[in-house]
Write a structure and sequence with these properties.
This protein is an alpha/beta fold. The chain is built from nine helices and ten strands. The chain has a six-stranded mixed sheet with strand order 6-7-8-3-9-10, with helices on both faces.
Length: 257
C-alpha cells in the first residue's frame, strides 16, 4: 500500500443485515478480522452464526450492509468469485469424493485451481508440480500416511482434515471453518486444534464453533452473536469476563479453569 498505512482488514462486514420475512437473522452486524487472526464467531443456537458465515462466503446475499475482502467490496460477488479473491471454506457436512483416494481428492482441487484437467498425454512438468503440491498439503493436514486410503474410509476427524487440505489447494488468504469439530471424538478434536494452530501465520482463519474448549484453544479474537446482534467483540479473556456474554450465552462454570 502507498503511504505506509495499515493493511486493510482480511474480512470486514459493515452493518450487515439479513432478513427472512419477519425474522432478522443478522441485525446490523459490523466485524473486522485482522490479517493472520484466528477469529471465532460464537453464540447460542439461533444467534445468527451460520447466516453470518453464509453472507461472508457469498452463499447468501444480505438484505443490507457490505462485505469486504482485503479492503475490496465483494458484497455482490458470488462464491466462486470470492474464492478467486482468496476466500476458501469448509462445510458442516463433508463435501468429498468418497471412492477416490485422499491424494486424488486433493489433486482434483489442485488441478481445478491450476485450471488443468486430465489429458491423454499429460504435461510431465505440470503433473510433477501437482504431485508436489498434493504432498505439501497432505503433510500440512497430517494425512501423508493416508494418501492412498479412499476418502470414505477415513474417520470423521480425518475427513475434516482432508477438507482443510482441499480448501487450502486454492492458496487462500482467508479460510472459513464452519463448525469444524462437530461430531469429533476428543482425541480428534485435539489433533484438529493442533492442525489449525500450525497453519501459516499469514493465513487468516475464521471459524464458527460451538465447542468452547476449541474456541479458547485457537482464537485470538472472538465475536459473540446473540439474537442476530453483535453482543461482544474482543480478545478471548476480555470476552470471557464480559457479564453480558455470560448472562446471554456462556455457562460461567465452563469458563472457570
Amino acid at each position: 500500500m502507498s503511504g505506509g498505512g495499515p493493511a486493510p482488514a482480511a474480512i470486514e462486514v459493515r452493518d450487515l443485515t439479513r432478513r427472512f420475512g419477519g425474522l432478522c437473522a443478522v441485525d446490523s452486524v459490523s466485524i473486522s478480522v485482522e490479517p493472520g487472526a484466528r477469529h471465532a464467531v460464537i453464540g447460542s443456537n439461533g444467534a445468527g452464526k451460520s447466516t453470518l458465515f453464509a453472507l461472508v462466503a457469498g452463499a447468501q446475499r444480505p438484505t443490507s450492509g457490505s462485505v469486504f475482502l482485503g479492503g475490496v467490496e465483494v458484497t455482490r460477488l458470488p462464491e466462486h468469485r470470492r474464492a478467486q479473491r482468496g476466500l476458501a471454506r469448509t462445510f458442516q457436512h463433508a463435501n468429498l469424493f468418497g471412492p477416490a483416494s485422499v491424494a486424488a481428492n486433493v489433486a482434483l482441487a489442485v488441478r481445478r485451481w491450476l485450471g488443468c484437467g486430465y489429458r491423454p498425454w499429460p504435461d510431465r512438468r505440470r503433473e510433477a508440480a501437482v504431485g508436489r503440491r498434493v504432498a505439501q498439503l497432505l503433510e500440512t493436514v497430517r494425512l501423508t500416511e493416508r494418501a492412498t486410503t479412499p476418502a470414505a474410509g477415513l474417520s470423521h476427524g480425518e475427513r475434516r482434515q482432508l477438507e482443510v487440505a482441499v480448501a487450502l489447494a486454492s492458496q487462500p488468504s482467508v479460510l472459513l471453518l464452519d463448525e469444524p469439530t462437530a461430531g469429533m471424538a476428543a482425541p480428534e478434536t485435539r489433533r484438529f486444534v493442533e492442525l489449525v494452530a500450525a497453519l501459516p501465520s499469514t493465513l487468516t482463519v475464521v471459524l464458527v464453533e460451538h465447542d468452547l474448549e476449541v474456541v479458547f484453544g485457537i482464537a485470538t479474537h472472538l465475536s459473540v452473536l446473540h439474537l442476530g446482534r453483535l453482543l461482544a467483540d474482543g480478545e478471548p479473556e476480555q470476552v470471557r469476563a464480559d457479564p453480558a456474554v455470560r448472562a446471554a450465552y456462556l455457562d460461567a462454570r465452563s469458563l472457570v479453569s
